[in-house]
């Protein structure tokens, strides 16, 4: 199987008035179709910068980034980006929000809009399609944000701490919802998070980054001996504490 995403010796620096600050240094990584990769690291180490590089929002200073073996286009609908906050527009209905990407990309194909309707029905938001974001709970808003991200049928999903604005109980519930949606859709995903437990519970593997400039310190392959794995049930696996302690040690 060929990788969906390949990073080859990616390096990136920020230029300030006083100096050049290296954020990412010599990162190489392959992601395969259907995989779920979690990325953890110290605050300010460059985790979100790495997602910006992958998404094409910024370009690496050196190294190569390939999607399906090719250099990505500047506007890449093969990649969906879900940010820390849902960023739903209050003046648009839920339907107007989840179809916003289709409008921006001038996609009028009925197939895409039928696809949106199917997702709204399957994930419990169809009866709220004419409501506005302020009328929805935090968890429902995050599901709407994910449907908006999936509407363009991306191959790769980038999740930049998408649960950080939620209270703990809602965070657990929404993590289960979004994990099940991603797995049902057989999407390839990268999750950036500060939460070690979240990284383990959702990821097939966890990539640990160093302090800035970010290097890959270690990659943990996550194998949990539980049937019908979900983020919630993953926390009950006998191997969970061992992974947590090992990742914690790497971050120190």
Verbal overview:
This protein has 252 residues and is α/β, with parallel strands linked by helices. The protein has nine helices and nine strands. It has helices spanning 47-55, 94-98, 100-104, 110-122, 138-150, 168-184, 196-202, 231-234, 240-251, and strands at 5-15, 20-31, 36-40, 62-67, 79-82, 156-160, 188-192, 205-209, 216-221. The protein has a six-stranded mixed sheet, sandwiched between helices. α6 links the parallel β6 and β7. α5 packs parallel to α6 (168-184) and α7 (196-202) packs across α9. The longest helix has 17 residues, at 168-184. It is globular, with a radius of gyration of 18 Å. The mean pLDDT is 88.
Instruction: Report the structural category.
Output: alpha/beta
Uncertain segments: none
Overall 3D form: globular
Please compute the radius of gyration using only Cα atoms: 18 Å
Overall pLDDT confidence:
88
Distance between the termini: 35 Å
Q: Helix count, per DSSP?
A: 9
* Helix content, binned percent: 25-40%
Please provide the count of β strands.
9
The share of residues in extended strands comes to 15-25%
- Could you describe the largest sheet, including whether it forms a barrel? 6 strands, mixed
> What is the subunit organization of this protein?
single chain
The run of helices and strands is: EEEHEEHHHHEHEHEEHH
Q: Strand order of the main beta sheet, please?
A: 5-6-7-3-8-9
């Amino acid at each position: 199987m060929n990788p969906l995403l390949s990073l080859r010796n990616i390096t990136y620096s920020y230029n300030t008035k006083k100096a050049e600050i290296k954020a990412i240094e010599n990162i190489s990584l392959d992601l395969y179709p259907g995989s779920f990769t979690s990325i953890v690291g110290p605050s300010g180490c460059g985790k979100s910068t790495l997602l910006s590089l992958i998404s094409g929002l910024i370009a690496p200073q050196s190294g190569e980034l390939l999607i399906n073996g090719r250099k990505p286009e500047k506007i890449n609908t093969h990649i969906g980006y879900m940010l820390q906050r849902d960023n739903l527009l209050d003046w648009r209905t839920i339907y107007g929000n989840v179809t916003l990407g289709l409008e921006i990309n001038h996609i009028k194909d009925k197939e895409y809009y039928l696809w949106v309707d199917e997702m709204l029905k399957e994930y419990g938001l169809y009866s709220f399609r004419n409501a506005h974001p302020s009328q929805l709970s935090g968890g429902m808003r995050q599901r709407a944000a994910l449907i908006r991200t999936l509407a363009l049928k991306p191959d790769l999903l980038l999740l930049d701490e998408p649960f950080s604005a939620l209270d703990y109980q809602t965070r657990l519930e929404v993590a289960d919802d979004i994990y099940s949606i991603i797995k049902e859709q057989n999407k390839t995903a990268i999750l950036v998070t500060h939460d070690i437990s979240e990284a383990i519970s959702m990821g097939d593997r966890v990539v640990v980054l160093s302090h800035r400039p970010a290097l890959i310190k270690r990659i943990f392959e996550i194998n949990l001996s539980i049937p019908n794995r979900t983020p919630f049930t993953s926390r009950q696996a006998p191997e969970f504490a061992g992974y947590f302690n090992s990742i914690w040690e790497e971050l120190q």
